[in-house]
Every structure is written in C-alpha cells, then in structure tokens.
Amino acid sequence: MIDVGLTAVADHPSLASGKASSLADLAAVFPVVELDTTYYNVPSQAVVTNWLKQVPAGFQFIVKATQAMSAHKVEEGHDAGAEFTGLRRALAPMIERQQLAAILFQLPPYFGVSATNIHVLRRIKLLYPDLPVAIEFRNAGWYLPEYRAQTLDLLRTLGFIHVVADEPQSAAGSVPLVAEATNEALTIMRLHGRNLAGWQRGGAQWRSQRTNYRYSAEELQALGRVAQNLASQRVMVIFNNNGGHDAADNAQQFIAQQGLHYNNLGPHQLDLF
C-alpha cells in the first residue's frame, strides 16, 4: 500500500478553496499529511481535536517532534522530557482514533554516530515505548559502509520507522537514499527535491530555496519503483519539495503514474469568493 501526502498544510495554492490551503483541502486529495507546526510548539489537545474535525475518519497524520525532542540545540536547562509528555497528552485524541501514523524525529545534521546519540535514540524508545516513531537521519555518517548495517539493525531493534530521504547529493550535508524498511508496519519516504544549489545556500531564504524543485516525470517514476519495492509494508510518500509550490502537483502526478486510488477522502471544498 502506498499513501501519498504533503507537508506545510497552508502552502499549496493549487489546492486552496480559500486564501490558503487547509487540512480539509488536502484531505480531499490525499490520505495523509505531515504536520510541521509541532516542531516549534506542542499543540493543545483542543487544537489536535480541531485538526481531526477537518478530515475524514481514517485520514493519517505524521506529526513532527519538537526541536528539543529531536536533539536540536535548545536553551540550557530546557526540559525536553516535559515536551514528550505534553505531546503525548496533546495527541491523545488522534491516538484514540488510530489516526497517528508516526511521530517524526528529524534529527539535526550534527547528530552523528556516537555512543551518546545512540543513547538518545534509546531514550526516545523509553519515553515512547508504545507509539510509532519515525527517524530521519541528516548526518551521512549513519550510512557509511562501516555503520549502515548496524544503524538499520538498531532501528529494527527499537521498532523505529526508517525515513527514506531523497535530497540533493553533495560531498557534505547530504544523506543517501537508503531504501530499507526497519518496521513491519510502515516506511516513510520524504522527498525534499534535488536543488543542489539551493540545498547549499545560506541566507534569509535558505529554507524555501532548499526545497525549490520540481521532479521530472522520469524522476517520479524512479521514486515510484523505490516505493513499490518497499510496499510489502505500508509506505507513506511525503512530498516536501515545496519551495516553489511544486509539491502538490508532483504528488498528484506520482499518484497518477502509480495508478493509486484512495477511498474515503474528504469532500472537495467550494471556493465561492
């Protein structure tokens, strides 16, 4: 089974029924979404309940762990453990309705292979022993020949979902596409585009430039073959190449190429003004 979705809910003008695209707009086309607002703050349970009201039953959410939870730099003395507890509490309605596909831990580029960082991964398991956890490494060291098998075995042992990333390839600052499943229930593919110049660029606009890329039909077909090879389990393919608002179109093109059809999507919204 291959489910396709987007990230950045409000940033898809081609789907918007109003001034900005909404969860309801995305749920009319796709069966899953990745929420990135949770990276910045733990939402309230009321906010999560409102998200659920906008989508049909069975619609799936990938929710980003906060920056403190995912080992990004935080203020000294900050209690990340409290955010683990707070996020679990906030997501309780989503968990109860079986609409939480995964909590995504997108680890920072400086999170390299070390005994300390392996302990961090094991601590995540201790704090979330019963929740679906997805791990995206952004340090290529985890995939070096001398560590790759051990990395994947560690994810399997912990029951973590491996995030297969597609991104520009450079000598530094990139991870390879490693099409390996480590969880029996789910694998996630996150497609960031292949804009090498934007990926390496700094400055105020770096975030949008990194993902400013439109996949060609041939590239989508190749990624489709990767997804099909992983599809003995459930695969969620998330398009994050939205620096130039290309993600929604590419995702729909991918769905058409793969001949995918989804039941129980939400109703299409009408733009009356």
Task: Write structural notes for this entry.
- The protein has helices spanning 23-27, 45-53, 80-90, 92-96, 115-127, 148-158, 196-200, 206-210, 217-230, 247-258; strands at residues 2-7, 32-35, 60-64, 100-106, 133-136, 161-166, 186-191, 234-239.
- Helix 9 (217-230) packs across helix 10 (247-258).
- 33% of the residues lie in helices and 16% in strands.
- With 273 residues, it is of the alpha/beta class.
- It contains ten helices and eight strands.
- It has an eight-stranded parallel barrel.
- It has a single domain, classed as Alpha-Beta Barrel (TIM Barrel).
- This is DUF72 domain-containing protein.
- It comes from Lacticaseibacillus suilingensis.
Question: What's the helix and strand layout?
Answer:
Layout: E1 2-7, H1 23-27, E2 32-35, H2 45-53, E3 60-64, H3 80-90, H4 92-96, E4 100-106, H5 115-127, E5 133-136, H6 148-158, E6 161-166, E7 186-191, H7 196-200, H8 206-210, H9 217-230, E8 234-239, H10 247-258
Parallel strand pairs: 1-2, 1-8, 2-3, 3-4, 4-5, 5-6, 6-7, 7-8
CATH class type? Alpha Beta
Largest sheet: spatial strand order:
1-2-3-4-5-6-7-8
The fold-level CATH name is TIM Barrel
The H-level CATH homologous superfamily, spelled out, is Protein of unknown function UPF0759
**Residue-averaged pLDDT, rounded?**
92
CATH architect. name: Alpha-Beta Barrel
What is the CA-atom radius of gyration, in angstroms? 18 Å
Portion of residues within helices: 25-40%
Strand proportion: 15-25%
Largest sheet features: 8 strands, parallel, barrel
Distance from N terminus to C terminus (CA atoms, Å) equals 38 Å
| Shape assignment | globular
How many helices? 10
